[in-house]
Design goal:
globular, alpha/beta
């Protein structure tokens, strides 16, 4: 089974007014246990906002990330690639982040299986900066179905993702979501599913 672990950084907890700062994703194929964690395909997309609306706690927690966004914004366009290489992040405008995530999935075998996208999509393709031919995001493309994993993904992260431009057009998250907290639950003593910090402690991390 192929699943995607997804985690967001946001400017706060309220989906109706706070913003997504970054999306992290890791793809794992359970049929290939020989692949080391550090070798799994990863995506770290940062969303560039001209203005931020958030809670003091969340903004302070993400101050290093916000500083990197500021550095990218203040760098001349022809030098921004150097910032991305230095930080290991890709920077996107909000309207482009879904396309970036789609292309990451496509490169790693998740999504439409077109050996010749130009033929199957009637020319609705575009060439990326990496030289790869990608399907264009059109209303005629089938949605990309993903099995998602993440602590509180269904009740928190997904709600923010669904507010991103074109998310609902491009992606469809399967109803069954993998929440790792169930792996570290003490069914006799816990009153509720453990927090992330408790899961990490019980995992020896």
């Amino acid at each position: 089974m192929i699943y995607v672990s997804i985690d967001l950084e946001t400017t706060g907890l309220e989906t109706d007014k706070h913003q997504v700062l970054s999306i992290g994703a890791v793809i794992e194929d359970t049929t290939k246990p020989e692949i080391k964690v550090e070798d799994l395909p990863t995506f770290h997309g940062v969303i560039v906002h001209n203005e931020l609306i958030g809670s003091p706690f969340a903004l302070n927690m993400n101050r290093d990330l916000i500083e990197k966004i500021s550095v990218w914004q203040s760098t001349k366009p022809e030098k921004r690639k150097e910032v991305e290489i230095m930080t290991g992040m890709e920077f996107y405008l909000e309207q482009d982040i879904v396309k970036g995530l789609f292309r990451f999935f496509y490169r790693n075998g998740i999504g439409p299986d077109y050996k010749d996208p130009g033929e199957h999509l009637n020319g609705h393709v575009e060439k990326g900066d990496d030289g790869i031919i990608y399907p264009s995001l059109t209303s005629k493309m089938p949605p990309v179905h993903i099995t998602a994993a993440g602590k509180n993904f269904g009740t928190f992260d997904l709600k923010f993702l669904e507010r991103l431009p074109r998310w609902k057009q491009v992606f469809k998250v399967r109803q069954r979501i993998i929440d790792p907290s169930v792996l570290f639950t003490n069914w006799r003593e816990d009153d509720s599913l453990p927090s992330l910090s408790t899961c990490k402690k019980r995992a020896g991390m």
